[in-house]
Specification:
By secondary structure, the protein is α/β, with parallel strands linked by helices. The protein is 50% helix and 11% strand. It has two domains: 75 residues, 434 Repressor (Amino-terminal Domain) (Orthogonal Bundle), CATH 1.10.260; 202 residues, Endonuclease, Chain A. It is built from 14 helices and six strands. It has a six-stranded mixed β-sheet with strand order 3-2-1-4-5-6, sandwiched between helices. The longest helix is centred in the middle third of the chain and has 20 residues. It comes from Streptomyces albipurpureus.
């Protein structure tokens, strides 16, 4: 299992760090030299703190510190404007983070225990989501009843109230994505998920009908991966690859959920491994037209 890390508070702050690192290296400066310069200006920082900024591990980045670094690195006007543009405005909240919707804040204890609140914030910013699911229907395509039964099965330790809350959050996610930045959802679903009865045949029938309708929605592409494909990299488990607006030049992020927590991966080698897996499986799955036919046949089976 990869090292578990909190997700970056903002994809844009990760880009700030990458830009600053490039400028520093271009100028032939070390982190120690940069930190010493900032300290001489009365700014509280050190080489370790600057390293965390460059690696996107800081939830907040002081504007005056970034300004000092840009001046030290002799950034031109364009670089200066673009880097400062990635930072929250001066009158933003103290944390510099987006304000979570009231529903997410209301269930913060549950979401943060799984580190899932960060996932929701990033998901809402993404322009493309590539989701592979091995055993269940993707959360963004689940019906309310299917979601309730799936969450209950995954988390038998939760109270009815907690399950209700997570169901509400899941449905809110669907509305947020529909109205947000995401323009593409590529859902790759292992065929076994279509045969696994979650809840009851009636629940499954409604769920598959929802999938069929979603498959014809603009921006949504659904493909079923036949079990006849045999062994494949996706057997290691489900994952989501998030792509963000080009304006941020932010690298893709991979998100993995476990029984007790969730993990994000943003190192190039890690992201490349999951991207290669998705790219390898996508053409082996049924094309959209054959997927729709397969869904129609499966719906009839749950009618019988």
């Amino acid at each position: 299992m990869p090292e578990q890390k909190q997700a970056p508070g903002s994809v844009a702050l990760g880009e700030v760090g990458r830009r600053l690192e490039r400028l520093r290296l271009r100028g032939g400066l070390t982190l120690v030299a940069a930190a010493t310069h900032c300290q001489e200006l009365g700014l509280r920082t050190d080489a370790s703190a600057l390293s965390r900024i460059e690696n996107g591990r800081r939830r907040t980045v002081p504007r005056d510190l970034v300004t000092a670094l840009l001046d030290l690195y002799q950034a031109d006007k364009r670089d200066h404007t673009e880097v400062m543009g990635f930072l929250p405005p001066p009158d933003a909240t103290a944390t510099g983070r987006r304000q979570r919707p009231p529903l997410w804040r209301r269930h913060g204890d549950l979401l943060d225990a799984m580190k899932f609140g960060n996932f929701l914030e990033l998901e809402a910013q993404a322009t493309r989501l590539r989701n592979f699911e091995l055993a269940v229907i993707p959360g963004l395509l689940q019906t309310a009843e299917y979601a309730r039964h799936a969450i209950t099965a995954f988390r038998p330790d939760l109270t009815v109230e907690a399950i209700d809350g997570l169901c509400d959050v899941r449905l809110h996610r669907q509305r947020t994505i529909a109205a947000g930045a995401a323009r593409e959802l590529h859902a790759l679903i292992d065929e076994s998920a279509l045969h696994r009865t979650i809840g009851s045949p009636a629940v499954m029938r409604e769920q598959l009908e929802r999938l069929l309708a979603a498959s014809e929605s603009p921006g949504t592409t659904i493909r079923v991966l036949p079990t006849a494909v045999g062994g494949h990299p996706g057997l290691a488990g489900p994952f989501v690859i998030m792509t963000f607006p080009e304006a941020t030049h932010a690298r893709d992020i991979v998100w993995i959920e476990t029984l007790s927590t969730s993990v994000y991966l943003d190192q190039e080698t890690e992201v490349a491994r999951y991207t290669d897996a998705f790219t390898h499986l996508w053409p082996r799955a049924l094309d959209p037209a054959r997927t729709r036919n397969h869904l129609k046949n499966q719906i009839q089976e749950f009618h019988s």
